[in-house]
Design brief:
This protein has 440 residues and is of the alpha/beta class. Helix content is 27%, strand content 18%. A hairpin with a 2-residue loop joins β5 and β6 (182-183). The protein starts with 15 loop residues before the first helix and ends with a helix. Mean pLDDT is 92; it is low at 1-32. The chain binds alpha-D-glucopyranuronic acid.
Length: 440
Amino acid sequence: MLEPLASRGYPFSMSPQKIAPFFAVFFIMLHADAQPKGFNYDEANVPAYTLPAPLIANDGSQVTSASQWQQSRRGEILSLFEQSVYGRKPGKPDELQFTVTSQDNNALGGLARRKQITILFEGGDRPFSVNLLVYIPTNRTGPAPLFIGYNFNGNHTIQSDPGIDLSKSWIRRSENGAINHRATEAARGTSSKRWPVETILKRGYAIATAYYGDVEPDHAEGWKDGIRAFYKTDENGDPLALTDWSAISAWSWALSRMVDYLETDADIDSNRIALLGHSRLGKTALWGGATEERFAIVISNDSGCGGAALSRRAFGETVQRINTNFPHWFCETFSLYNGNEGALPVDQHELIALMAPRPVYIASAVEDVWADPNGEFLSARAAEPVYALFGKEGVGVTTQPTVNTPVGDFIGYHIRTGKHDVTDYDWAQYLDFADRHFDR
Ligand code: GCU
């Protein structure tokens, strides 16, 4: 048991100069935690690798046109990702119910209309629901384009707005106002730094979010309380065992159900929906965007291993480490590639290529070495030949750009200063990217 600090003679009377080294040690400890030991963080030690070629079909023939890509090669790569990384998904349920549980036309001091919607899935063993929060700008003409993304700790954390329902779901982290994995009033607005809602609304965009834990709680046994316990067949009606899909495919499947709702909402321009996600939810956004073409723009923020970063580089987090620490995120087959990334039939540049010809944005952060920022850039770059089939330019540069210098046309990329996070800088780039591609 630790003694109280004061009884150990903790030097409260020390000068700032003397205290500084304590903070330095604390910072290094924090930093060390973000960069676990025993992994490669040195570019010189990246193993030699050859990336699978997105434009060589399974039968060895060369793909030379956008129509060949759309009609056959895209489907081949999608199946390879389903089989080896993320697993399959159910189809759209026949019984899908949307209930607007609250609406406030004067939210955030009149800046927005706020709606909360329960999306109820039926057709499995029991009803199952996900709660969607949507803010729509008041000052607009016609339906609003929209950003959508999952949040990590409940809808009530993205704004301190007391009108947002407190989540009743299991919350992964018992911190920031969650106690014993349940939300409390103190949790309101605790993630608002990552969600500049007012800025987004003032730029004319609506914003929608849902708590990913409504779909499947994020732990190894979470499937028991999630949709993987609920649906037993895939989109073709074939049996879907638990290990045939994954938490990431479950989370991304529910994103499609949110689009099903948004298509019914007259306030939203459902042809202009930008999907974004951070970190594990960035991996989810990429798989969600690959499998759902109704997302017109897809944005990956610091998604790292199993997201935008190339697996074969084994830089920072590796396939083995991610499968060991998060065994529920990927399908069972992915673990066959532990320590053997070179045998994967795909790599993550092909995931990015699955967005083509839609605009996609990949963002990294300098201190987020665990996520392999250069591997994220190289992946974005290696997706370019697929965009070229459509006559679209990708990142447009051959080496990682300097810090805080966004590049790219249909494949946007930046690396910003700072750590693993979603910042105002990131959002500023996403808003500009969406303005450009949505002709605003
Ligand atoms: C861990 C994990 C990453 C993941 C991140 C997150 O660091 O190793 O793969 O992206 O958590 O989601 O916050």
